[in-house]
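INFO batch 0412 | record 1 of 1 | parsing
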Amino acid sequence: MQVGVISDIHGNKVALDAVLSDMPPVDALVCAGDVVGYNPWHADCVAVVRNRGVPTVTGNHDRAVAGGGTFGFNSTAGAGVRHARETLTDEQIGWLDSLPDSRREFDGRLRIVHGHPDDPNRYTFPDEFAPTLLGEEDALVLGHTHVQGHEQFDDGVVLNPGSVGQPRDGDPRAAYAILDLAERTVHERRVSYDIERVKHEIESADLPERLASRLEEGQ
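INFO prediction complete | emitting tokens
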């Protein structure tokens, strides 16, 4: 079974469109959270994920938007949360509020979380991937760090597909992954997108300039 894995879209519809266009045929698509935040197309990204019926968990930005606060975010992250809350419909915010911290798919063979199996807000980088993160699932999907990586163990595979909308591993291209659930193998993928268009829309939305410049840096 081929599963497309995405995470940390962060309101970047241009990058999301590029990922979905680049993605080879898959049997299913899953998302490890943070559909909104940072970039200006929050409503569009929510609509794409909802319309496709993508199994999704909540990210910290999703929770902040749904909960009505910025939860200690820095000024750039907080600006994205406020912009999302201003541009999403009540129904879309309700959908964000309904997302679980964790979910299992495909008869429990795949578990999806945002940060860590024990703490949705905990950053878990690829060099911390270990077999102890796995339960009875064949594959564990994490997001949150915006850093792409995976590790294969005897009991299964742990992977972070990287960030669709704001990569932070030095590669500005949008990131995603293809998981072969039967073989427990991962193909990490990157795709270029129109960063200049996103930068222009960030400026037009009066969002912090740093949100634009970091896209080019992959940071």
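INFO post-check: The first helix runs from residue 13 to 22.
INFO record closed
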